Amino acid sequence: MRMRIWVDADACPNVIKDILFRAAERKRVSMTLVANQPVKTPPSPWIRSLQVPAGFDVADRRIVEQVQAGDLVITADIPLAAEVIKKGGHALNPRGELYTQDTIGQRLTMRNMMEELRSSGVQTGGPPTLNQRDRQAFANQLDRFLCKHASQPSR
Q1: How far is residue 62 from each of residues 41, 65, 128, 130, measured CA to CA in Å?
Q2: For every one of its 155 residues, what pLDDT tens digit does the chain have, with 9 covering 90 and above?
Q3: Under the phi-then-psi rule, with left for phi > 0, alpha for psi from -120 to 50, and beta for the rest, what region is 137?
Q4: Do residues 119 and 103 make contact, with C-beta atoms less than 8 angstroms apart?
């Protein structure tokens, strides 16, 4: 079975989607953007969007239901990445960090600690704006991943 790409599209920056569109076409990899709002996609036999009902983590749950071992999920959502890895999938964030079995536990712990601080009223700020270096890191990591994993026959 050939790997698929799943995109947590509600929060995925457009510039990252553009990189993904080009990569899916170039590598002929099936990609699905999952969101609770309509997502514009270019006409392609490789790219589709899936709109799910609005609600907390509805898109994340749909991705976890659909993802199979070996698939790649694009997300900045640490709990989603952890679930994907648990199912044997791979998770890459829009800044180019490939989450692994070795790193996801630490990321989840840090995320939970920050969530706890925020809920107690501490202003932690958000992540910095996605910059050119982040976009390049993402494109490079995606390309390395696809060169390694996207060469099997189509499913």
Answers
A1: 19, 5, 28, 26
A2: 589 999 999 989 999 999 999 999 999 999 999 999 999 999 999 999 999 999 989 999 999 999 999 999 999 999 999 999 999 999 999 999 999 888 887 877 776 677 776 777 777 666 778 899 999 999 999 999 999 987 654 44
A3: alpha
A4: no
